[in-house]
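Lay summary. Proteins are chains of building blocks that fold into shapes, and those shapes determine what they do. In this project we predict the shape from the chain. Here is one chain we studied, written as its sequence of building blocks.
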Amino acid sequence: MIYIILPLVAGLITQVSKFFIKANRSRFTLRNIVAYSGMPSGHSAITASLATIIGLKDGLTTPAFAVALIMAFLTIRDAVGLRRYVGKQGEIINDLVENLDEDQLLDEKYPHLAERIGHTQKQALVGIIIGIIVSWLGYYLF
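And here is the predicted shape, written in a compact code that computers can read:
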């Protein structure tokens, strides 16, 4: 059960802490609680926490730790790389659509694309640190 609880606690800590960091400019809404971006990275915290607790409880040479570590690497890489680029593309497309004349292809039903999707390297690093700390504390306290 500790394998589930600690990563979820790490994710919860990161998501709640986003509202207290002024650079995120987030208001406390249900939508922002599950936001994909901002400081710190919940993706990084959850996956780092899972890999850490598996490594501590089962050992660093187990297949479970190897899978968790590789999945953490892929998830964090995706959050910092691909999803960040998708957010930048959303920003550019939204700007283009706003500047179109009314008689062009798109009408008012065009959905506004999400622009804040990925994470910076700093956001991911802080998430990793939080995930590792939560699992270390959880392991030694319980």
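What the prediction tells us: The radius of gyration is 18 Å.
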